[in-house]
Amino acid sequence: MKKFELLREDKLKRRLIRENVRRVHMTAAAFAIILPIIMILHAVYELPIEIRAIYYSVLFCFEIISIAFFTIASYSKKKKKRQTISILTYRSFWLIVIMMMSVISYLQMYEYENMATYCLMVAVLSIVPMFSGFEYLCFMVLQSAVILFFYTMLDMHPSHLIGAAIFNIGMAVAYKYFYELQLRTIMMKGKLFSLNKSAEEDPLTKALNRRGLDKKLNTIIPYAIRNKTAVALLIVDIDNFKKYNDTFGHPAGDKCLKAVAEAIMKTARRESDLTARIGGEEFLIFVHGEGEEGPVRLAEMIRKNVEALHLQHYTREKGHYVTVSIGVASMVPKNLNCVNELYHEADTSLYTAKKSGRNVVAWKDKVYKKAAGAE
Predict the structure, then answer these.
(1) Is 204 a domain residue?
(2) Which of 2, 127, 173, 235 is the most exposed place for a label (fewest CB within 10 A)?
(3) How many CA atoms lie within 13 A of 21 on its CB side?
(4) Inter-axis angle of helices 250-267 and 293-307, to 10 degrees?
(5) Could you give the maximum distance between any two Cα atoms of the chain, in Å?
(6) Does residue 3 register a pLDDT over 50?
(7) CB count, 10 Å around CB of 151?
(8) Residue numbers of the domain that contains 31
(9) Looking at residue 152, what is its pLDDT?
(10) Other C-beta atoms within 10 Å of 260: how many?
(11) pTM: predicted TM-score of the whole model, two decimal places
């Protein structure tokens, strides 16, 4: 694997940005906890008076910054689509951390000629972020500038400079290893996610397939049983679809299915609404937390939105468009077999809709030409 070449892929780049924000979140939380402990320890073992005020001021500022970035990172994680905010968050965080830890390292070297804090800083800042090639190059240049500054200002022994250089090189090698390991992990997770998603998704319409629907229902139904909330099932069938295929051909039929599925999913767009393709021209919509009125209104909106697509039907007559018939059923589930009961009731309602002339919504024996409140 060539270094950093995988960052050219947009999806991987977005995942790396999310990973960096997650690491900022965790690191800021760790600093927010550790820094007060360091301040307490230094209060017990007092520093020399000439640097005590500066040292405590730096630690206090570092604490405030850590808390602020913990809050910003929490916000950035929730706003996943705001990529610019996320990039600014992790870059500015690591830049400020470099500055603060450099000051702390300088004070430690000035007073004790101890490079432990500097080595800790380089280790944390080299391995924790997931920088791109250019970002890491900038980081290494900045680190080199810091150690040269220390060497000039503190009149360090050349052996210290050589030791710091060797340590930096070791950290660069370690970073490369952990970076590529993380890339492989992210890629593997992405592939597994794509495979799982494709296994649960209808390839033509991008709606759920039976497997995907069953998996989600295994979570939703027990929740509805515990909370005694109503669930509803809508079965949507494209009217006279066989004749449409016979007239225009299967490629046109596939385009029709995709257009109808898109109209359904745009209408049933709540996170709790599940849309699945369960047959050639049959779709199923599962609605959670609704009684009778809500699902009927949703079904009528779907019916009208599909008709509004103005897909010319098999008769080729002007104004004769593709329409759907919808059967609706609802209940408060008492056991896991409620899905079978719902499907049977919705299928019976769909049969009623078909008998009533198609392009209608039916719930049990009721046929809704136009539901109240439908848009």
Answers:
(1) no
(2) 2
(3) 25
(4) 140
(5) 95
(6) no
(7) 16
(8) 5-198
(9) 77
(10) 25
(11) 0.52
